[in-house]
């Protein structure tokens, strides 16, 4: 049994689906179901006894210890986080509450649980904390990519809150010997991503004839990681990572935002050949403190754990666009909020 936090979100739901497609080991899935948490992502698991969903907060000091005692997980994958930079600029408090205070309370509950385990179970236990490359700050065009030794220089309330959680996880290893693993990933994309992020926003807007808003000059560079590659890396780190170590997970796909947008337009044009999607591109005022470039050096995880991404950006973006083309009802449900009604209809017995 493993416990996954944030398992109804974008990365979390992909991880849960991927895990259960490859393993019969059960998952307890703890998710608060904020705006980006969507149980419809996991509808294919309805009635699957390997998946036990609990609606709740990682900061709940009564619920989390109860779940740990009841289910006795051998590992915890901490994916629960507020994760959108724009939202953190306009409302940073939620990020402080979830990413810092929530992580602290989760660590406290896990530390108590871990200390009470028998010797062998205690040695085998792992706490895997999933973080972001944004904690490292911004790179210039010619600087080398982020390694695990790069100093933390977060520039947004979001990245600062994630940096704080990373430091807490590290401290619990060095102070209490809790067997933690930390991963810092680059920008994820793929199925089930909430349409406020760049790639799904461009796809959704293009399909509905809305403008494609590009910040500033569009030359901000990101390294793009297909979400199922990220999931396979997490599984590999959980399996073979050394407690106390950090592993950067990247896709080896650095691209400027404007190139991403134009590529999406071109690929959508293959399905809708008479459309002129690039005419929808609109440059808008850059957001405050917008980091210029992120880039992940993922040599350590390749060298030490023999992991590399399976998808190139060319293959991953095609799969992503096709998924959104095939799942326009999912898009409509997310945008209208009807997926909340779906939750109430199908999960009236959610554990509290």
CATH class: Alpha Beta
Give start-end ranges of low-pLDDT stretches: 347-352
Number of strands: 12
Question: Please, how many domains?
Answer: 1
Structure class: alpha/beta
Tally of alpha and pi helices: 13
Report the mean per-residue pLDDT as an integer: 92
* Strand content range: 15-25%
Please compute the radius of gyration using only Cα atoms. Answer: 20 Å
| Topology as a string of helices (H) and strands (E) | EHEEHEHHHEHEEHEEHEEHEHHHH
* Cα-to-Cα separation, first versus last residue: 20 Å
CATH architecture: 3-Layer(aba) Sandwich
Per CATH, the superfamily is NAD(P)-binding Rossmann-like Domain
**Which geometry do the CA atoms define?**
globular
In spatial order, strands of the major sheet run: 3-2-1-4-5-6-10
The portion of residues assigned to helices is 40-55%
What characteristics describe this protein?
alpha/beta, 3-stranded mixed beta sheet, 7-stranded parallel beta sheet, globular, 352 residues, Rossmann fold
């Amino acid at each position: 049994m493993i416990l996954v936090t944030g398992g109804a979100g974008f990365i979390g739901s992909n991880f849960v689906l991927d895990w259960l497609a490859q393993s019969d080991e059960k998952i307890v899935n703890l998710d608060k179901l904020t705006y980006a948490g969507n149980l419809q992502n996991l509808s294919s698991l309805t009635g699957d006894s390997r998946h036990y969903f609990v609606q709740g907060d990682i900061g709940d000091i009564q619920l989390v210890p109860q779940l740990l005692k009841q289910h006795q997980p051998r590992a915890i994958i901490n994916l629960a986080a507020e994760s959108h930079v724009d939202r953190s600029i306009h409302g940073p408090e939620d990020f402080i509450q979830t990413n810092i205070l929530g992580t602290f309370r989760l660590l406290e509950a896990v530390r108590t649980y871990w200390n009470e385990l028998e010797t062998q179970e205690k040695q085998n236990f792992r706490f895997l904390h999933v973080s972001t490359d944004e904690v490292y700050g911004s790179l210039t065009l010619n600087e080398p990519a982020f390694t695990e030794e790069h100093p933390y220089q977060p520039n947004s309330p979001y990245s600062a809150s994630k940096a704080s959680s990373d430091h807490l996880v590290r401290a619990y290893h060095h102070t209490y010997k809790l067997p933690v693993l930390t991963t810092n990933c680059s920008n994820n994309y793929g199925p089930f991503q909430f349409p406020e992020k760049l790639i799904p926003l461009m796809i959704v807007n293009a399909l509905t004839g809305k403008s494609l808003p590009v910040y500033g000059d569009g030359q901000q560079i990101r390294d793009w990681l297909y979400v199922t590659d990220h999931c396979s890396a997490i599984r590999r780190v959980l399996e073979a990572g050394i407690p106390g170590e950090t592993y950067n997970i990247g896709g080896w796909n650095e691209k400027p935002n404007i190139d991403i947008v134009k590529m999406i337009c071109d690929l959508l044009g293959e399905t809708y050949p008479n459309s002129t999607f690039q005419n929808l591109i609109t440059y808008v005022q850059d957001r405050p403190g917008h980091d210029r470039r992120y880039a992940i050096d993922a040599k350590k995880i390749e060298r030490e754990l023999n992991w590399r991404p399976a998808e190139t950006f060319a293959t991953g973006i095609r799969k992503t666009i096709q998924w959104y083309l095939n799942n326009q009802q999912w898009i409509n449900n997310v945008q209208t909020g009807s997926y909340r009604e779906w939750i109430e209809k199908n999960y009236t017995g959610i554990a509290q």
